[in-house]
Amino acid sequence: MKIDIVSIAKKERSTYDPLYKELTKMISRFAKVQDIEIFPKDVAKSHTISPEASKQAYTRALEPYMDNGFCISLHPDGKLIDSFEFSKLLNDRMSIKFFVGGAYGFEDSFLKKSDAVISLGNITMSHKIAKAVLLEQIYRGFSILSNHPYHK
To answer: What is 59-76 written as a DSSP string?
Structure first.
């Protein structure tokens, strides 16, 4: 299985990088994870215009990645699910793409093109922490599907 995490984010070193690396290594028993961070000039410029312009720029940047695979957008208004429901999203798929929007979220039109829209919870968190939570839930989901004791 192939999993892409596509986010509107500047590529920069982070104190979370060792955690991402460790979680990705743990997941590698089940799937190959690719972290794709994009922040084109169009997005940077849109942030100086308006939230609506920013959402439109995110859509233009992210839509080309929706070409194949099961597409899941992370959004505060998405469906709240537990780890067992999350594991079902991973089950029997060849390719999954998780989308993390920019500071202003997603346009409704982008969310409608997604196969699923989920929320990681009611709290607000930075992209870097959201990515760590997402990676941990991916590993937990695969652990549930394979009856590995990690989830217990």
So the answer is: HHHHGGGGSSSEEEEEEE
